[in-house]
Design brief:
alpha+beta, two-stranded antiparallel sheet
């Protein structure tokens, strides 16, 4: 399996939501829905507070429970990689993948009824381009690349900086990393 990863620098992210807007436009996401979102977390005790902005989405897990939970095979890995996509033609809208996803990263596309989600913009990745969210980030807080390549930018950043993933306890092996 080819492992793609997204690395987000929480020290650099300014919470502008340009990533969300770029995703909605690039993927024709209907009004009121989004495949990614920005979370603001404030920690500490006044007056010593710290705020972290975190762009969240599908974590394109290497051991994705959404893929194994799908009864029709609509949730699947793309092209021998860890990028999880949904084949709308196979999706019955049963919501098993929604229940299995610990990241709340799936949504029901209305009125069609199939499940939609972030795809790391596979239509761009297959041509060597970054996902739209990464391409537009004005703070350059988002990075994308091959985790299998030790010389890639994402591998270098993960080797150099302390980082974490969301819900590692699930065993899903998420591939979106947050730099501290």
């Amino acid at each position: 399996m080819t492992h793609y990863a997204m690395v987000i620098d929480t020290r650099t992210c300014i919470g502008c939501t340009d990533c969300v807007d770029a995703c909605r436009m690039e993927n024709n996401v209907p009004e009121g829905l989004c495949y990614d979102w920005v979370v603001e977390i404030t920690k500490g005790k006044y007056p010593h507070l710290e705020t972290e902005f975190r762009s969240e989405r599908c974590n394109h897990c290497s051991n994705a429970t959404c893929v194994t939970a799908c009864p029709t095979g609509a949730s699947q890995y793309w092209n021998g990689s860890n990028i999880v996509v949904v084949d709308a033609a196979k999706c019955t809208g049963c919501k098993a993948c929604i229940a299995a996803c610990p990241y709340d990263a799936r949504l029901i596309m209305q009125p069609q009824g199939y499940i939609g989600k972030c795809t790391f913009c596979v239509h761009r990745v297959q041509y060597g381009e970054d996902p739209a969210c990464v391409a537009v980030c004005p703070a350059h807080a988002m990075h994308f690349g091959l985790l299998d390549d030790p010389t890639s930018n994402v591998s270098r950043l993960l080797a150099e900086r302390d980082h974490y993933t969301l819900h590692p306890e699930t065993g899903n092996e998420p591939n979106v990393f947050y730099l501290r």
